[in-house]
Design a protein that fits this description.
Elements: H1 2-21, H2 29-41, H3 44-65, H4 69-74, H5 76-89, H6 107-116, H7 122-125, H8 132-137
């Protein structure tokens, strides 16, 4: 379940960076590691919010400080990590986004969440660790 959520988060990150900066984002180990950490605390729909806010912050950095698009986009994951830490410490209720029409649910995600776990949209709207027990049963 965490892998599906990770890929949905990465897909949104790539989409957002391209949409804002018109460049291809290359996710490295730090990006993947940070997104896995975020998935322990937040749902994919909440991570959409975190990525959106962090991308907006990176765009301001690009415009206000003249940073290159690549440099600015590389600040997104650090911004996301900082925001999530503040949200966690201050116990903020991070807003949930809906799926975008441009990024529909994958066939694998639909099958897994609807047919296997029978949780439907909750797979997107709740943190993956909430359903860890159910997904561990499937890995025997």
């Amino acid at each position: 379940m965490e892998k599906i959520s990770l890929h949905e988060s990465l897909e949104y990150l790539h989409y957002n960076v391209f949409n804002v900066f018109r460049i291809i984002y290359r996710a490295g180990e730090k990006t993947v590691s940070t997104l896995y950490d975020l998935l322990n605390e937040y749902s994919v729909s909440q991570i959409y919010t975190v990525i959106y806010r962090s991308t907006s912050q990176a765009l301001r950095f690009h415009i206000e400080h003249g940073a290159s698009k690549t440099h600015a986009s590389n600040t997104i994951i650090g911004n996301a990590q900082k925001f999530a830490e503040r949200a966690n410490v201050n116990q903020w209720d991070v807003q949930r986004y809906h799926r975008l029409n441009e990024l529909p649910e994958s066939a694998l995600s639909k099958f897994f969440f609807n047919r296997i776990l029978k949780i439907g949209y909750a797979g997107f709207d709740n943190k993956p660790t909430q359903f860890k027990y159910e997904s561990e049963l499937l890995e025997f």
